[in-house]
Amino acid sequence: MGPHHPSTHGVFRMVVTLDGERIVKLKPVLGYLHRNHEKIGEATSYLGSMPYTDRLDYLNAMTNNWAYAIAVEKLGGLAVPERAEYIRIILAELSRLQNHVCLAGFLLQDTGASGTPLMYAFRERENILGLFESLSGSRMMCNYQRFGGCRVDPSAEWMQQASTLVEGFGAFLDEFEELITGNEILMARTQGIGVLKAADAVAAGITGPMLRAAGVAYDIRKVDGYGFYPRFNFRVPLGAHGDTYDRYMIRILEMRESIAILRQALRDVPAGPIMDPKAKLRGFSPKPGESYGRIEGPKGEIGFYLISDGSPNPYRYRVRPPSFVNLTVLEDLCLGHTIADSVVILGSIDIVLGEVDR
Amino acid sequence: MLQNPGPAAQHSLLVSAAVLRQVAEFLRDDASLRLDYCSNVTGVDWPDKVVVETTRSTVPDPAGGPAKVTEQKTERLEPGFLEVVYHLYSMVQRHGPVVVRARTANRTDSATLPSLTPVWRSAEFQEREIFDLFGVVFTGHPDLRRILMWDGFKDYPMRRDYVEPEDYAWEPTPHGDLVEKAKRAQAQSGGAQT
Amino acid sequence: MPTITDEERSELRRHGILLTSVEELYNWGRSHSVWPLQFGLACCAIEMIAASMARFDIARFGSEVFRPSPRQADLLIVSGTVTKKMAPQVVRLWNQMAEPKYCIAMGACAISGGPFKRGYNVLKGIDRFVPVDVYIPGCPPRPEALLHGLMELQKKISGQSISGPEAPRHLRSDTNCEFPVPEFGEHDLLPPNNPEVWHVPDSSPKP
To answer: What is the pLDDT of residue A93?
Structure first.
């Protein structure tokens, strides 16, 4: 199945052995989008790799940038001003909103509701992308975070537009849920399909909404407390069954929590500088050492491991991709189900090939 | 225990290949550590390094004058190795990261390490990737084959001494060796299209 | 043979008389119902999907449905980086599409390898194997840019004549419609490019 298939999320191939319609063995084949990001990272300076991180998980450029910025700030011992942290949180939660809403749309398209929920999802996503564009200049590939802060200071008008969007998003979610969540076709197609147990999830290194749907309460925003997340009051939804319906519902609930975080953040954003005054943008050569920085991206834990030898380019630049590790359990989830179910399960794992193959 | 000199201060533990599996199982099962989540498995290539050592010897002058200082430079070849770095966290106890490193004996014929996939399943795909891109053979891995490049590919691309195939791409303002590359590529293809 | 100019034609149309030629009608039908193949490789694919959604709506240009099967599509929008691992599949899909078929290279990666040009696994442009009709630069190009590219393609199709050297590939007997599929070699694809489609561009300094 694949690499060109109407339902795979990018160029992904599954070699499936069938018994009738039931899946007996499934081996994923990756690498169709392997773009040598890590090798290019060794040949580019630290700042020069920032636009490449946009293209990893190409739906959430802002969170990729933030993860890389955290890793480099750990490596170089840079501090980030308060306003910049708040802005980063606002953009990360907006990114999470548009990612989860995209996932809901794509998952429903995989079940067969061809196009309509996706249209609704993209309508809201366009509003968020408009915000990103007015701030950073590009809809998707934002290249916005810098080591020690952010690149552009959002104006009060931008904050106002963001507040309006957040207020309207709650109403959109209510409308979406009314149409979709209680839908009996969705429930029949996704409940009990692709059950993932908590112990298997932890052993296989699953992170993100998939892990929480299996019942493990591990959210890096709460565990590591990076940024100023400890200041915000939000809950972490947990699933009880670990099936595809739970994974879908977790994302809907996470969207509501993101709206809560955004409301608090937009209300409390302080004024001040957005960039560390001591940080050098060009000619940045951190001292020799290494660091591993990670954040809770919308798809899971995205981390960057950097080894520096004192030169302007990293010695080793490694991306820890959430979708790649989340695919470890794909075979186990799909065994015994039909091909149609495997498509739905793949949709609920929420992979994006730019990240899997780098 | 290897010190990490940078400000991040994430020190790592260098473990020899013989005891790697036991150390991993200890880290996972010990009640106070419970490092049940292997987050990241990285491969690093450290090529052979030529180290120049200078020894200074002082010979006192028998006549009582200033001592003669001679410098002797010796060159030593430090053999390179491939290194695999594991970042471990504990989901149960919410701590981490614990960084474990393991090194192969050399880069050529004995680039093997025991696989930690039986200990942490999250290492499965990542160790396959290190096999694909660096060439470290993991013994005990359930399914060790190339994951990102195609199966017939012969090189290990992430190594420092990998040479890319001659694959000319147009540059608007070629300079230096790119002009030579352009001329060679044109001569090879037997015709140019402006 | 006396021909009617466009001004005279639009004048007549205003009076309710529609005059056209078979060629114009043929091309009008072909250019305004181009059905793309649903072929998204990477980030540009998301902008392609956004172009088909409610805000930018590619359906009003005739591309109502994105066909999943190559046998039913006549436009291949290569959106995203083509890697060497993926290149044989792209050419195979291209061969499976029925004539008349067109190719749009969307995004910097499909044109020339894009930001990943230094990669060992990146094919430096899909035009090394497949003849491209329209190039859309950008990383990623905005959906409006894709629509502009589609309009350029429509103009190109409208300009094709039914017979003679300007005719499209499927109406001529001297062109080759089957493109060879590259194979995986030990270090690179074999062959690394298709000599009928791509030549090394001239980089000598211009006077």
So the answer is: 92
Rounded alpha-carbon distances, angstroms, from residue B113 to A203, A207, B116, B135, C127 = 21, 26, 9, 11, 43
Which CATH number does the domain housing residue B97 bear? 3.30.460.80
Measured between beta carbons, the chain A residues lying within 8 angstroms of B38 are 205
Q: Is residue B39 part of a domain?
A: yes
Interface test with B, best of C85, C187, C189, C193 (most B CBs within 10 A): C187
Whether the pLDDT of residue A27 is over 50: the answer is: yes
Residue B194 has pLDDT above 50, yes or no: no
Q: Which pLDDT score is estimated for A97?
A: 92
Tokens representing residue B187 in the block: 């001569």
Q: Is residue A197 part of a domain?
A: yes
- Determine the residue among A46, A226, A285, A316 to mutate to test chain B binding: the one whose Cβ has the most chain B Cβ atoms within 10 Å: A316
pLDDT value at residue B170: 65
B107-143 residue pLDDT tens: 777 778 888 888 888 888 899 998 888 888 888 888 8
- The larger pLDDT score, comparing residue C194 to residue A203, is at A203
Q: At what angle do helices C22-31 and C143-158 cross, to 10 degrees?
A: 160
Residue B193 has pLDDT above 50, yes or no: no
* Chain B: partners with 3+ C-beta pairs within 8 Å: A, C
B150 and C CB contact within 8 Å:
yes
pTM equals: 0.88
The amino acid sitting at B43 is: G
| Residues of B with Cβ-Cβ distance to C84 under 8 angstroms | 150
pLDDT in tens, A315-326: 999 999 998 999
Chain segment A153-189, per-residue pLDDT in tens:
888 899 999 999 999 998 888 888 888 877 778 888 8
Which residue of chain C comes nearest to B184, CA vs CA? C200
- Give the residue-averaged pLDDT of A14-30: 85
Domain residues for the domain of B27 are 12-45+81-163
Same domain, B18 and B94: yes
Beta bridge partners of A146: A149
Residue bearing the bigger pLDDT, A311 or C5: A311
> Scanning every residue of chain B, which has its alpha carbon at the shortest distance from the alpha carbon of A307?
B44
Distance of CA A327 to the CA centre of its chain: 15
CB nearest B91 (choices: A218, A289, A315): A218
Cis peptide upstream of residue C191 (ω within 30 degrees of 0)? yes
Q: Is residue B99 part of a domain?
A: yes
Among chain A residues, the shortest Cα distance to B85 is held by A305
Q: Are residue B141 and residue B183 in the same domain, yes or no?
A: no
Residues C1-56 have pLDDT tens digits of: 556 677 777 777 777 666 667 777 777 777 777 888 877 888 888 888 888 887 78
Which one of A12, A74, A290 would you mutate to disrupt binding with B, by most B Cβ within 10 Å of its Cβ? A290
- Residue A20 domain flag: no
C103 neighbors C66 (Cβ within 8 angstroms): no
* Residue in B closest to A37 by C-alpha: B158
CB-based contact (8 Å) between C188 and chain B? yes
Domain count for chain A, please give it.
1
Give the C window 30-59 contacts with A, CB below 8 Å.
Answer: 38-43, 45-47, 49-50, 53-55
Domain holding A153, by residue range, is 36-356
Give yes or no: residues B147 and B173 share one domain: no
